[in-house]
């Protein structure tokens, strides 16, 4: 399913931001995004996030404009005990009216947990390569942190 131009964009939500607030950073590719991921001040940001429990945790997000899929990486915890919450948003068919008859397309969010930075890097590479079969297989092996219809608040 093609929904838009063949490019990726990304954004950042810093600790303390409202849930609907994000800094749009424009187009990116794997090499540039992974440099941003590696240099992001994760530990400083999770420390700051503890001061704003009702606001967002530090999060960086990638949007594939061609497929309408999103992948975001967030961190929680503290300087000595922390991990990633990662989210995958994708189009999904949902039956309407008690599961009978017509379907409608929604955006579905799966959230997973990992403490392994290398796993996050590998998932990021698969996402940018649009190798969604391998991406989905790998991400679904991680601990499930919840699934729901996506709100897309930071678009």
Give keywords.
single chain, about 160 residues, alpha+beta, seven-stranded antiparallel beta sheet, about 25% helix
Summarize it:
The protein is an alpha+beta fold and 155 residues long. The chain has helices spanning 30-39, 42-49, 117-128, 132-139, and strands at 8-13, 23-28, 59-64, 69-77, 82-95, 103-114, 143-149. The chain starts with 7 loop residues before the first strand and ends in a 6-residue tail after the last strand.
Question: Could you tell me the radius of gyration in angstroms?
Answer: 16 Å
**Low-confidence sequence ranges:** none
The number of distinct helices, counting runs of at least 4 residues, comes to: 4
Sheet with the most strands?
Answer: 7 strands, antiparallel
Helix content: 10-25%
Give, in spatial order, the strands making up the sheet with the most strands: 2-1-3-4-5-6-7
Coarse structural class: alpha+beta
Overall body shape: globular
Task: Count up the domains.
Answer: 1
Total strands: 7
Give the CA-CA distance, first to last residue: 20 Å
* Average predicted local confidence, pLDDT: 92
Portion of residues in beta strands equals: 35-45%
Please provide the ordered H/E string of secondary-structure elements: EEHHEEEEHHE
């Amino acid at each position: 399913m093609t929904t838009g131009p063949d490019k990726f964009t990304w954004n950042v939500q810093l600790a303390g931001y409202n849930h609907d607030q994000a800094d749009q950073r424009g187009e990116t590719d794997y090499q540039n995004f992974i440099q941003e991921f590696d240099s992001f001040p994760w530990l400083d940001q999770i420390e700051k996030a503890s001061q704003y429990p009702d606001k967002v945790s530090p999060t960086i997000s990638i949007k594939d404009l061609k497929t309408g899929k999103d992948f975001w990486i967030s961190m929680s915890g503290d300087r000595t005990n922390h991990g990633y919450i990662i989210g995958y948003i994708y189009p999904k068919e949902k039956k309407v009216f008690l599961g009978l008859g017509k379907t409608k397309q929604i955006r579905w969010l799966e959230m997973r947990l990992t403490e392994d930075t290398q796993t996050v890097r590998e998932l990021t590479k698969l996402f940018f390569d649009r190798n969604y079969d391998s991406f989905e297989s790998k991400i679904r092996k991680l601990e499930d942190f919840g699934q729901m219809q996506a709100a897309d608040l930071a678009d």
